[in-house]
Amino acid sequence: MPATMEVFTPTRPVKDHLRELVVQALLDLRRHKKLDFDPATLQFEVERSRVQGHGDYACNAAMVLAKSAGMPPRKLAEAILEQLPESHHLAKVEIAGPGFINFHLSAGCRLGVIRRVLELGPDYGRQPADSAEPVTVEFVSANPNGPLHVGHGRGAAFGASLANLLEWAGHRIQREYYVNDAGRQMDILAISVWLRYLELGGIIVRFPDNGYKGDYVVEIARELREREGDRLRHTALDVQDGLPADEAQGGDKEAHVDALIVRAKALLGADDYALVFRTGLEWCLGDIRDDLAGFGVRHDSFFSERSLMTDGYVERAITMLRTKGHLYERDGATWFRSTDFGDDKDRVVIRDNGVTTYFASDLGYLLSKFERGFERAIYIWGADHHGYIARIRAGAIGLGLDPARIEILLVQFAILFRSGERVQMSTRAGSFVTLRQLREEVGPDAARYFYVMRGNDQHLDFDLDLAKKHSNDNPVYYVQYAHARICSVFRQLTERQWTFNRSAAEAARARLVEKSEHDLLNEVMDFPDLVLSAARNRAPQQVANYLRGLAASFHAFYNDQQLLVADEELRNARLGLCAATRQVIANGLALMGVSAPEEM
């Protein structure tokens, strides 16, 4: 008789327990010379049964491993059952069809979920801390040259939710924002601020076609003028005399703005230009921090691109590539032979003027992640960065890093709709919808939920009207209403001068025999499995879908059963189920950065 195997604990998902039972049976078969392969190296699934009457979970191990075992699937399934360890969490195990193994959970296992949820509370579904590899998750990382817009919002919501999931799955997580504070776009911001500063002082200089035109630039310029007065003033002739024509003047807008940057640096001098540059950077970065905080998104680190040079990461990355023989000289520049590692063309790391490229900074930043002790690096980028993936992977291989430990997840665009019409946006022209405006219109809860309802690799049509509806058509309202409804039940309990007794609920759990009660119990039980699945698949949308299903099961249970019945034993049993459901809804919403209101 196989030994009893009790490895299921409050923090272990049911599926993991069942999988380990099957693995143990396969190992015993191997030990008895009935199998000649290592079953632990092969993949099989344990999933919720989709057909009523086929048990609670189904396993396809016999189907998947039959060829390797050299026996028909059903015969292998029978052999597995003969060696399957006993478990108090199983009422019955049977074979169905050509060889599926169906598990029927015991009543004690199913009903015991209420006690587990209430004991663990906000930690129900969370795996032990630091039980998985440390991971750095870089997300948002918008250039600090203006306010965050709704496109950045989707990356923020996805990244924050994914980081939460990975943390709940046992990883030590660092949430990082990579601050692009050394690039040309920051110089364009600096001269945009300076020209508005001059304009506020009565010096009118033609604003470049490629400048940043948003109202926030005027606000930064006004702060600069209040602090510096006329000290940074120069005449319009000094600023624009001899500049190449702009695009609207029949010229090249890039050449024009670059010449304007050179002119500003010459007129202001290094220190004052740095002052203007820093004023724009700090204002935008401060605004971004405040905006993210209002959106419920936090970062552990704001990592400066400029620090890559001062801390030597870029120099070390280039030296490593040179030592490994991956660099060559051509036309005065230094090139990385990235085509050797799957890129479509080689990349310059040092220009012919001796200045390192943005790609060199990317390599230094990548190197820094692993030198700082992380075992996995997750990048979350906008879909327009798809072309960067191959060069980053090539750079990782060139540096001797394991590319399997580097994940690049792309977030597709979010398109806003109001009254059925698409909301038009243009970032450079300053006519975009900011994340702050979206939060103020629909609220941070609806924004966070709507952003992650669909997979990050799918386009998202964000219906502003639906997000503001207080009806069951609005998915976030529907889920939050379930939580508030449970809170209302407990308020009514108090009004009737009754109390909820957890111990009595535990003792009376066998009274939960109705289908709607069992359906709700199954949903509550699935939460730890859901957390691990969503984390492993990098899929926060699974949490959103799960919560909607959980809310639907609760509403069905609420409509099917009377909760505040005179029968105290039954009342406590049902209130225990309500309390467990409320806790799981709150935990799931917390993973998404959404509140769990007590009243609506």
Q: Class of the largest domain in CATH?
A: Mainly Alpha
SS field, number of helical segments: 22
Terminus-to-terminus distance: 56 Å
In the sheet with the most strands, the strands line up as 7-6-5-11-12
For the record, the CATH architecture of the largest domain stands as Orthogonal Bundle
Describe the protein's architecture and organization.
- The relative contact order is 0.10.
- This protein starts with 13 loop residues before the first helix and ends in a 9-residue tail after the last helix.
- The longest helix is centred in the middle third of the chain and has 42 residues, at 253-294.
- Mean pLDDT is 93; it is low at 3-10 and 427-431.
- The protein is 50% helix and 12% strand.
- Helix 1 crosses helix 3, helix 2 (61-69) packs across helix 3 (73-83) and helix 5 packs across helix 15 (444-451).
- The strands form 4 sheets. Strands 7-6-5-11-12 form a 5-stranded parallel sheet, with helices on both faces. The chain has a 4-stranded antiparallel sheet with strand order 1-2-4-3.
- The chain is globular.
- The protein folds into 4 domains: 14-105, Gyrase A, domain 2; 185-294, no CATH class; 310-410, no CATH class; 471-591, Isoleucyl-tRNA Synthetase, Domain 1 (Orthogonal Bundle).
- The protein has 600 residues and is α/β, with parallel strands linked by helices.
